[in-house]
Design brief:
Keywords: Carbohydrate metabolism, Glycosidase, Hydrolase, Polysaccharide degradation, Signal, Xylan degradation. Its EC number is 3.2.1.8. This protein is α/β, with parallel strands linked by helices. It is about 30% helix and about 20% strand. It has an eight-stranded parallel barrel with strand order 1-2-3-4-5-6-8-9, surrounded by five helices. An eight-stranded antiparallel sheet has the order 13-16-11-10-17-12-15-14. Strand 4, helix 8 (about 185-195) and strand 5 (about 200-205) form a beta-alpha-beta unit. It binds ligand G3I. Ligand G3I binds near residues 122, 123, 207, 271 and 312. Ligand G3I binds next to loops.
C-alpha cells in the first residue's frame, strides 16, 4: 500500500481512499497488501519505516520460508549472494546468478533491496585474498564499480564497506589487506559506489557499534563525522546489532542511533538477531525496535533471517519465527511495539542524487535516454526511466530537476494507466506523485529522484509533466 503516516488524520485517509480507488479502477490487486499493522512490514510502514530480512537464495524454494518472507518483510538483503566471493569468483568474471535471484524475487513481490556488501575484509574470493597494494586497491574499486553498476537503479542502500574497524579498546581500523592499501580505501570505495549508482544510499555497516561508550562506536562516529565534513559521499550507517548474553542490548542504544543521525546520516538496523527465548528475548526486541522508532532518521530494521533454523546462529534461536514458522513471543512484541509507534517522526534523506546535469542515465534495460524539457514556467522538469521490468511489473525511476528558480515542493503527473502500490521518496495520490516531506526543496538546476514499482506493462521512458 502507499505508505501512510501515523496521525496524519483526514488527509491520510483521503489519500488512502484515492490509492485504493486507483488500484480498483485499474483492476490490479495489491500483491502483498495486508490490513494495516497485522504484519511487520505493515506495522513499520505506519511510521514510514521498512521491516526487512536477510534471504538465502537456496531457501526460496521452501514455501514456508518464502510465504513468511513475502508476507512479513518489505526490505530484502541477500545473506551471502551479493558478497565479493559470490559476485566475482574469478577476477573480472562476475556471477550474479544468485544475487539476481534474490533481487528479482524481491522486486517482483514489491519489495526494496539492501545491497550487502561491496568491500569487506571477509568473504573475499581467493584471488583477492592474495593481493596487496595498488593491484588490490584497483581490484577492489573495479569490484565496487562493476557490482554497483550491475545493480544500478535497483538498490535502496548499499553496505559499501563492512566491518572495517577493530574490536576492543583501540579505536583503530581493523588490519586487513584492504586497510594496508592505505587509510583512504574506505572513502575511495564510497566515491566509486556513488559514481556507479548515484541513486543508492551508501552505508557504512558494522557490529559491536551499539554501545555509545565503546571505542569502536566512537571510532566509526569520528570517521562518519569526518566524511560528512569533507564531502565524502556517505548517507547512512548500518548497525548490525547481533546480540547475545555476552553482548546484550546496551541501555544507551538509542543514544548511539540518535548521535549518528545527528551527523546528517540515516541510521538502519541491518542484521538484527537476539539470542534467547520467551519473554526475556521479547523484551530485548522491544528495546531495539523502540529505540529505532524514537529516532527520526532510523529508517528501518532488518532481521538476519526468517526462522530460527535459518539463522547463522541457529542454536541461539535468535529470530522472530521458530523452526516450524510459528510466530514467537518476540514476534508479537515486535509487532505491537511497531504499532504503538515512537517519538521519532521519520524524516529519511532523499535518495542521494544531486547531479547538476538534468539528463538521467539509462539503467539496465536499454531504454532511450529521455531529455527532460523545461516546463514553460521553468519550474521543473521530470524524466522517467525504466530500471527493470518483468512479466506483470516493472521498476521505474523519475528524476525531478529544478528550473532556474529552485523548488520548495514538486508534483509529477505519471503517465495515464500507471498504477503502483509501492512508491518511495514521493507520495502517490490520484496519479500524481508529490514530494516526500524531506525532498521537496531542490536548488536551481539540481535534481532529486523518486521511484516506484509499477503494475502491468511499463510505460515509455521520457519526459513527464512537473509542477
Ligand atoms: O554454501 C556452502 C556449502 O556449499 C558448504 O558445504 C558449506 C560448508 O561449510 O559452506 C557453505 O557456505 C557457508 C555460507 O555461509 C552459506 O551457508 C559458509 O561456509 C559460511 O561461512 C557462510 O556464513 C555466512 C557468514 O556471514 C560468513 O561470514 C553466514 O551465512 C552469514 O549469515 C554471515 O553474515 C554476516 C554478515 O554478512 C556480516 N555481519 C555478520 C554476519 C554474521 O556472521
Amino acid at each position: 500500500m502507499t505508505k501512510l503516516r501515523r496521525g496524519s488524520g483526514r488527509g491520510a485517509r483521503a489519500a488512502a481512499a484515492v490509492a485504493v480507488l486507483t488500484l480498483v479502477v485499474t483492476g490490479v490487486a495489491a500483491g502483498s497488501a495486508q490490513a494495516a499493522g497485522s504484519t511487520l512490514q505493515a506495522a513499520a510502514a505506519e511510521s514510514g519505516r521498512y521491516f526487512g530480512t536477510a534471504i538465502a537464495a537456496q531457501r526460496l524454494n521452501d514455501s514456508t520460508y518464502s510465504t513468511i518472507a513475502n508476507r512479513e518483510f518489505n526490505m530484502i538483503t541477500a545473506e551471502n549472494e551479493m558478497k565479493m566471493d559470490a559476485t566475482e569468483p574469478s577476477q573480472n568474471q562476475f556471477n550474479y546468478t544468485n544475487g539476481d535471484r534474490i533481487l528479482n524475487w524481491a522486486l517482483q513481490n514489491g519489495k526494496q533491496v539492501r545491497g550487502h556488501a561491496l568491500a569487506w575484509h571477509s568473504q573475499q574470493p581467493g584471488w583477492m585474498q592474495n593481493m596487496s597494494g595498488t593491484a588490490l586497491r584497483n581490484a577492489m574499486l573495479n569490484h565496487v564499480t562493476q557490482v554497483a553498476t550491475h545493480y544500478k537503479g535497483k538498490i535502496y542502500a548499499w553496505d559499501v564497506v563492512n566491518e572495517a574497524f577493530a574490536d576492543g579498546s583501540s579505536g583503530a581500523r581493523r588490519d586487513s589487506n584492504l586497510q594496508r592499501t592505505g587509510n583512504d580505501w574506505i572513502e575511495a570505495a564510497f566515491r566509486a559506489a556513488r559514481a556507479a549508482d548515484p541513486g543508492a544510499k551508501l552505508c557504512y555497516n558494522d557490529y559491536n557499534t551499539d554501545d555509545w561508550t565503546h571505542a569502536k562506536t566512537q571510532a566509526v562516529y569520528t570517521m562518519v563525522r569526518d566524511f560528512k565534513a569533507r564531502g565524502v559521499p556517505i548517507d547512512c550507517v548500518g548497525f548490525q546489532s547481533h546480540f547475545n548474553p555476552q553482548s546484550p542490548v546496551p541501555n544507551n542504544y538509542q543514544t548511539t542511533l540518535s548521535s549518528f543521525a545527528a551527523l546528517g546520516v540515516d541510521v538502519q538496523i541491518t542484521e538484527l538477531d537476539i539470542e534467547g527465548s520467551g519473554s526475556a528475548q521479547a523484551e530485548n526486541y522491544r528495546k531495539v525496535v523502540q529505540a529505532c522508532l524514537n529516532v527520526s532518521r532510523c529508517t528501518g530494521i532488518t532481521v538476519w533471517g526468517v526462522r530460527d533454523t535459518d539463522s547463522w546462529r541457529a542454536s541461539g534461536t535468535p529470530l522472530l519465527f521458530d523452526g516450524s514458522g510459528n510466530k514467537k513471543a518476540a514476534y508479537t512484541t515486535t509487532l505491537n511495539t511497531l504499532n504503538a509507534g515512537g517519538t521519532g517522526t521519520p524524516t529519511p534523506t532523499p535518495t542521494p542524487t544531486t547531479t547538476p546535469t538534468p539528463t538521467p542515465t539509462p539503467t539496465v534495460t536499454p531504454t532511450p535516454t529521455p531529455t527532460p524539457t523545461q516546463n514553460p514556467g521553468g519550474a521543473c522538469s521530470a524524466a522517467l526511466t525504466i530500471a527493470n521490468s518483468w512479466g506483470g511489473g516493472y521498476q521505474a525511476t523519475v528524476t525531478v530537476t529544478a528550473g532556474s528558480a529552485g523548488l520548495t515542493g514538486w508534483r509529477v503527473t505519471l503517465p495515464s494507466g500507471v498504477s503502483s502500490n509501492n512508491v518511495w521518496n514521493g507520495v502517490l495520490s490520484g496519479g500524481v506523485v508529490s514530494n516526500a516531506p524531506y525532498n521537496g526543496t531542490v536548488a536551481a538546476g539540481q535534481s532529486t529522484t523518486f521511484g516506484f514499482i509499477g503494475n502491468g506493462n511499463a510505460p515509455a521512458a521520457g519526459a513527464l509533466s512537473c509542477a
